[in-house]
Design a protein that fits this description.
The complex is a heterodimer of chains A (473) and B (383).
Chain A (H helix, E strand, L loop, with lengths): L5 H19 L4 E9 L7 E8 L17 E2 L2 E2 L4 E7 L5 E8 L5 H4 E8 L7 E9 L3 H14 L7 E9 L6 E6 L13 H14 L19 E10 L8 E11 L15 E7 L2 E3 L3 H9 L8 E8 L2 E7 L5 E11 L12 H18 L7 H23 L3 H10 L9 H21 L19 E3 L16
Parallel strand pairs in A: 1-9, 13-17
Antiparallel strand pairs in A: 1-2, 2-8, 3-4, 5-6, 5-8, 6-7, 9-10, 11-12, 12-17, 13-14, 13-16, 15-16
Helix pairs in contact in A: 1-3, 5-6, 7-9
Chain B lengths: L25 H19 L9 E4 L6 E4 L8 E4 L3 E4 L7 H19 L4 E2 H11 L7 H15 L8 E2 L5 E4 L1 E4 L6 E2 L8 E2 L4 H6 L1 E4 L3 E5 L2 H9 L2 H4 L2 E5 L6 H13 L5 E4 L4 H12 L5 H4 L6 E5 L14 E2 L2 H11 L6 H13 L1 E2 L12 H11 L5
Parallel strand pairs in B: 5-6, 12-13, 12-14, 14-15
Antiparallel strand pairs in B: 1-4, 2-3, 7-10, 7-13, 8-9, 8-11, 16-17
The chains are: A alpha+beta (473), B alpha/beta (383).
InterPro entries (chain A): MTOPVIB_plant
Main location (chain A): nucleus
Keywords (chain A): Chromosome, Cytoplasm, Meiosis, Nucleus
Chain lengths: 473, 383
């Protein structure tokens, strides 16, 4: 199997190009991949076709494609791509043979006779090739790639994969990858909106392995907390600027999750997209993830597990029923561009931080630092005492004042309601204090006096033997 | 760091920055609690919400000042106007912050019922209700003092009684409202217990033909003197607080000193720094309860034991000072409140490294104590 490794890589490159052609077309497009393994030959040969109805291809994209004919001493393919392509305005369908094994540019490409379109208006490309060996090793990477691509929710592209073994229809399988229909953003939604919706789906559908939301884990989308952050880099000195978008989804799974086949073990998968394509997580992004001050969000990063760009973050002291999912998307502001510069580390960090802060702002008492969480643990008791003070009073004026200050209309309001309100309010303030930059954290007002006198910090411990102690009987 | 001692030339105004706890009626104390609740809620629910910090009068040495009386002979320690901040969002003070509100909640209920509880009762109540916050009596007491420092009303005003350890015996008649007068010379050797109810103490009628008030540090010595009816020979009233005096005993003594201003108050303590510290608590008040203790400072005099009594005591009865003694001595010496001859005594203790207990005088017989006091009084040897 291993000796086939260059082939999946080549296929993903070809599929990526096809996907970009579809994405850039304004129309509804289809990207079909066909894997056809003949059963009569030994060793088997698999014919592969990657066809799209996107804008025609400009051949430049094949310039840098490389794939050896042999790998580990075994022949893996003949090195030949056949490409048929036409643009909307073209009168014919052009046909080329491209020999990827040839390094001399003008020998690499051989034009074949074109076909007339006879006035028909369409565009599209089909790339085909044949490889030795079974197609088994090819199916999984393609499916995995498609499952990730649909996180971006590029709505005008439908993806499908047809797997054929022999001529019998019983040996055909078709996989269709479509965006989940129950909550689909409209065509005009921003990239970020779509990424948010896509990542939610990705979580709900177990990394898009399911066609619908997993009922074991989720009863509805409300179990998801979503935060997003965007940072833009301006165009500068001929350098094309770009946008870094980060979405973080945290799911509070149900208790019944344990019945579900998929267990996340509390690990966090990081998805990385480079210019609308799934891509291995680059090293700079890894460093950025490591440098985030997770403790500020009550998280302790235990380990970063990197398997060739497939990255999982592992946490310490993390509840197993909570799952965090992170998606990073970097794209240039102009596309296509020949430049391939990625985001800098500070841009990455800022994006992730913005997403975390956004999540924290939207969900009170969530992602608080361990300090604030400790403080919050005292809040129910404090709220109970304050509500106790209000409701034990026999002074109706005082009670009325308290309730009206809190915005309650009637005297009939229940103690529990008031207690919960006070509790929520205090937790909100604790969360707000945390989001304020340190320098902006003004001292809280005093209960009675406006702190104009010299103040010092409260020391909890009475100093032993200081002067003579008072009797505290 | 140099402490502000209040020893300025403007002695008349040295206590203008005095912070104090008011003595309030239950409904007045309740009103202060209500105001604090309303203030908290207002700020919490304002457009720019916050959790109000508690500003407590600082009960540290650094915030203590000394008033050296010019027109009176009473000096006292008081707390000035520096604050400490107790904040929910500060990890160091968060729990103390919640404790303050818990104590206020209970005090509010006590005040509503117009009842009084002891700090011990309060402790058990809090231990049942909120075991996560109160694990010791000390924590309860400290939180009570925090509430006093926040609301600036006395502990008694909050409905909390000092469970008094004080005893009184001798030539004194005490008549509580609506009751018969008690003859403190006829209460046996255990004396008459001073109540922790300050209000009752305030309304008790006092009569005496004594010439002296004598405070005794130790219960055993008090017991000996009363059993021997020393007050028959020396016309006096004996008081003990069994160690450091509680507020009720100080209140009682202060009430006596204002009712009978001509009676000198003499103090008999062990010859060690702790003995002197006990004397000073009667004389100047204390920092821990500085918001109210200053009121009850009395101009007490030190009758014994003192350095020149050492010749009455066998060498083997002198024991070495303990580290704790040295600590207290150091603290007292740096307090700047001691008069010259007190400093000399304290320096002598430190110099010799020894301490002596009153019981050492028993080597001259059990009845020697009465004679010792009589001699001291006759010779006017109290400072």
């Amino acid at each position: 199997m291993e000796n086939n490794a260059p082939v999946p890589k080549l296929l993903l490159q070809l599929i990526s190009s096809a996907f970009q052609r579809c994405r850039l077309a304004e129309d509804l497009c289809r990207l079909s991949v066909l894997l056809d393994q003949s059963t009569e030959r030994d060793p088997p040969i698999t014919c592969i076709s990657i066809a799209d109805t996107g804008i025609g291809c400009n051949l430049e994209e094949f310039q840098n494609l490389r794939c050896p004919r042999e790998f580990n001493g075994a022949k893996i393919w003949d090195g030949l791509l056949s490409v048929k392509t036409t643009c909307f305005t073209d009168d014919e369908v052009y046909y080329y043979h491209i020999n990827l094994d040839e390094y001399i540019a003008n020998k690499r490409l051989k034009r074949q006779p074109s076909q007339a379109k006879n006035g028909a208006k369409f565009s599209g490309t089909e790339v085909s090739l044949s490889v030795f060996g079974s197609m088994d090793v090819l199916v999984a990477p393609i499916i995995g790639f498609f499952q990730k691509i649909i996180v971006l929710q590029i709505l005008n592209v439908t993806l499908d994969l047809m797997v054929k073994q022999g001529t019998s229809p019983g040996n055909q399988t078709q996989y269709v990858f479509a965006v989940n229909a129950d909550k689909t953003p409209c065509f005009t939604a921003s990239n970020l909106e779509r990424l948010k919706s896509g990542l939610e789906d990705y979580v709900l559908r177990h990394a898009n392995c399911l066609d619908t939301m997993c009922d074991y884990c989720f009863s509805d989308r409300e179990h998801l907390k979503v935060g997003s952050g965007t940072v833009c880099q301006e165009d500068k000195h001929k350098r094309v600027g770009g946008t870094m978008e980060v979405v973080i989804v945290i799911s509070d799974l149900l208790e019944s999750t344990q019945h579900c086949s998929r267990s996340c073990n509390g690990k966090t998968e990081v998805l990385y997209f480079d210019n609308f394509l799934p891509s291995p997580v680059p090293h700079l992004a890894l460093s950025a993830l490591k440098k985030i001050d997770w403790k500020k969000y009550g998280l302790i990063l235990a380990n970063v597990n990197d398997q060739d760009g497939h990255v999982f973050l592992e946490w310490d002291n993390f509840p197993s029923y909570v799952q965090i999912q992170i998606a990073l998307h970097w794209y240039h502001n102009q596309y296509p561009t020949r430049q391939k510069n990625g985001p800098g580390i500070s841009l990455l960090k800022k994006g992730i931080k913005n997403a975390l802060d956004n999540l924290k702002a939207k969900h009170e008492g969530f992602l608080l630092s361990s300090h604030s969480r400790k403080i919050c643990s005292y809040v129910p008791d404090l709220a109970r005492s304050i509500a106790g003070l209000i409701f034990s009073s026999t002074d109706l004026d005082f009670q009325g004042d308290c309730l009206s200050v809190l915005g309650f209309q009637t005297q009939e309001v229940e103690r529990d309601t008031v207690e919960n309100y006070i509790q929520r309010k205090i937790v909100t303030v604790i969360g707000m204090n945390e989001r304020k930059p340190q320098k902006d954290q003004e001292a809280a007002p005093f209960l009675f006096f406006d702190g104009e006198s010299e103040t010092s910090f409260f020391e909890d411990e009475e100093v032993e033997g200081e002067y003579y102690s008072s009797s505290l009987e | 760091m140099e402490e502000s001692s209040g020893l300025s030339s403007m002695k008349f105004f040295s206590d203008q920055h005095l912070s104090y706890a008011d003595i309030l009626l239950p409904h007045e104390a309740r009103a202060r609690i209500e105001v604090s609740v309303l203030n908290l809620l207002r700020i919490l629910n304002s457009p720019d919400p916050a959790i109000s910090d508690l500003s407590l009068i600082n009960r540290k040495r650094s915030n203590s000042c000394i008033n050296k009386g010019i027109l009176t002979d009473v000096s006292y320690i008081f707390l000035s106007t520096s604050f400490t901040k107790s904040s929910l969002t500060n990890a160091k003070t968060a729990k103390a912050f919640v404790r303050v509100w818990k104590v206020m909640e209970i005090c509010f209920q006590i005040l509503l019922q117009e009842k009084r509880v002891t700090q011990r009762e309060l402790f058990y109540k809090l231990l049942c209700d909120s075991p996560d916050y109160f694990s010791s009596q000390i924590e309860v007491n400290r939180s009570v003092q925090d509430v006093v420092a926040l609301l600036r009303c006395s502990r008694y005003s909050l409905g909390i009684m000092a469970s008094s350890r004080g005893l009184v015996a001798g030539r004194l008649f005490l008549q509580e409202p609506g009751k018969e007068a008690v003859d403190c010379s006829a209460c046996g050797s255990s004396g008459f217990a001073i109540t922790g109810d300050l209000n009752l103490l305030d309304n008790t009628i006092m009569r005496t033909d004594a010439r002296y008030i004598i405070i005794v540090e130790k219960h055993a010595i008090f017991h000996r003197l009363v059993e021997d009816r020393v007050f028959n020979h020396i016309p006096c009233v004996f008081i003990t607080a069994k160690g450091y005096p509680d507020i009720a005993t100080r209140f009682f003594l202060h009430r006596m000193s204002t009712t009978f201003p001509d009676l000198p108050i003499l103090v008999l303590v062990d010859w060690n720094p702790a003995g002197l510290a006990i004397l000073c608590t009667f004389k100047f008040g204390s920092i821990g309860m500085g918001l109210e203790a200053y009121r009850y400072a009395c101009n007490v005099k030190w009758i014994g034991l003192r350095g020149d009594d050492l010749n009455l005591i066998p060498e083997e009865s002198l024991v070495p000072l303990k580290p704790k003694d040295s600590q207290i001595a150091k603290s007292l010496l740096s307090s700047k409140i001691l008069q010259e001859n007190y400093i000399e005594e304290l320096s002598l203790m430190v110099q010799t490294g020894k301490r002596a207990e009153i019981e050492a005088l028993y080597c001259h017989g059990y009845n020697y104590l009465g004679k010792y006091i009589a001699t001291k009084i006759v010779q006017g040897k109290y400072i």
